[in-house]
Amino acid sequence: MKADVDNNPKIALWNSNYTKAWISNFMIFFSFMLLTPLLPLYMSEEFGADKDLIGMVLSGYTLTALLIRPFSGYFVDSFPRKMVLLVSYFFFMALFAGYIVAGTVALFAVVRTLHGFPFGATTVANSTVAIDVLHPTRRAEGIGYYGLSNNIATAIGPTVALVIYQACESYDLLFVLSLLFALFGLVISSTLKLPKKEIVTNKQKLSLDRFLLLKGWSLGIAMCCLSFSYGVLATYLAIYGKEELGITGGTGLFFMILSIGLICSRLVGSRTLRKGRIVENASFGVVVSVFGYLLFAAVHNLWGYYGAALIIGLGNGHMFPAFQTMFINLAPHEQRGTANSTLLVSWDIGVGLGILVGGALSEYWGYHAAFWGAWAVNLAGVIFFLFVARKLFLKYKLR
User: Fold this and answer.
1) 272 vs 143, 266, 351, 375, CA distance in Å?
2) Half-sphere exposure of residue 71, counting CA atoms within 13 Å on the CB side?
């Protein structure tokens, strides 16, 4: 089989449809990340919002994205996937115009919160489409490379936004650019040619497994623990760096180094995924990541701060595409959307819990307690994956 994959020129990874799905996903995250670093400043300058209000408003999209994802998997599996993708992508693109016309903080909050619905739906639909157009022998590898699209967008989007803003100091220009990049992604998506698939119809009753992949419950628990740690760090590292390490502009560099780690490990990990070493990739990734969180919690200087970013990036770059492949391999073909949405829901729940619990720990016992708590939950997730989830996956996998 390996020889067939390597030597048969007909089995291409970067076929035209996969390339279009990759570009479309890049545009989703690039247009979104173009605004993310400057929205707090925009709300402060335009509406005079304080920090509590800014946090409340900007986190609204996370809740709506979480709410829509199980239903997105259902719609992707129950209706033509291209239609679901184009409809959700259109609303994702159109809501960028809402930022321009929102003249009050209340309207801005409504737009931001509503934006989470098409963002969550579009990411589920587009990733499912990308899996559909991959040859089965290249699917695991393709999932790894697919993740590079949002890694690269997340790495360069904030930097591009800051350069543009410093040059012209116009928020409206950034809103328009985000809309145009999303429109470009929508146009690319409209040219996709997808294989025919069986639509899930005529089920006797609407059951929970239409929205969540129940066989993936153990992987979901492990993913929640692993993303919990990320939620704590991503939310509180900026203020921790400023107050305790004297780092005033280091957050961007932290995420840049994290993205470099993600990109490097995905490039290497995709080769091993191609060889079918999915469980090995996931195991290696979670073990590497837990050492990154340990470094961040234990070493309180620049080496610990930025070194942890690289190690966590290297671990997550191996772990996430392997987990996604494992979810897909637990599901029949007609439930790929449900498998994708279950993965993303698990990640979102963990991040949300990390934000809430991390805030409570840092409020009462300080940032060090929050980061040690993040490491402890991550370690629990690693142990659970290695001794429970991994075995259940090998028992119930379909492919």
Assistant:
1) 12, 10, 28, 27
2) 11
DSSP string, 157-185: HHHHHHHHHHHH--HHHHHHHHHHHHHHH
Q: Kindly tell me the sign of the dihedral angle through the C-alpha atoms of 165, 170, 175, 176.
A: negative
Sign of CA dihedral 329, 335, 341, 345: negative
Calpha distance 271→368 (Å, rounded): 37
C-alpha span between 328 and 73 (Å, rounded): 12
The reply to whether the predicted model has a pTM over 0.85 is no
Query: For residue 193, how far is the Cα from the chain centroid?
Result: 25
CA distance 275 to 178: 38
- Confidence check: pLDDT of 180 > 90: yes
Task: Give the whole-angstrom CA distance, residue 340 versus residue 121.
Answer: 11
pLDDT tens digits along 105-149: 999 999 999 999 999 999 989 998 998 888 888 887 888 788 888
Please report the pLDDT score of residue 340 as a whole number: 80
Q: How many residues does the chain have?
A: 399
Give the other-Cβ count within 10 Å of 298's Cβ. Answer: 13
What is the token pair recorded at 37?
Answer: 């670093």
C-alpha–C-alpha distance, residues 166 and 390, integer Å: 48
Closest CA to 288 of 313, 268, 267: 313
Neighbour-count burial of 258, counting CB atoms closer than 10 A to its CB (0-12 exposed, 13-18 middle, 19+ buried)? buried
Between CA 225 and CA 326 the distance in angstroms is: 17
CA distance 199 to 379: 40
- Cβ–Cβ under 8 Å, residues 232 and 349: no
Neighbours of 183 (CB within 10 A): 17
Q: Amino acid identity of 305?
A: Y
Q: Is there a contact between 374 and 232 (Cβ–Cβ < 8 Å)?
A: yes
Find out whether 310 and 258 touch, Cβ atoms under 8 Å.
Answer: yes
Residue in 188, 193, 200, 198 with CA at minimum distance from that of residue 133 = 193
Residues with Cβ < 8 Å from 350, sequence gap 6 or more? 223, 224, 225, 226, 227, 228, 230, 231
The rounded distance, in Å, linking the Cα atoms of 39 and 104 is: 14
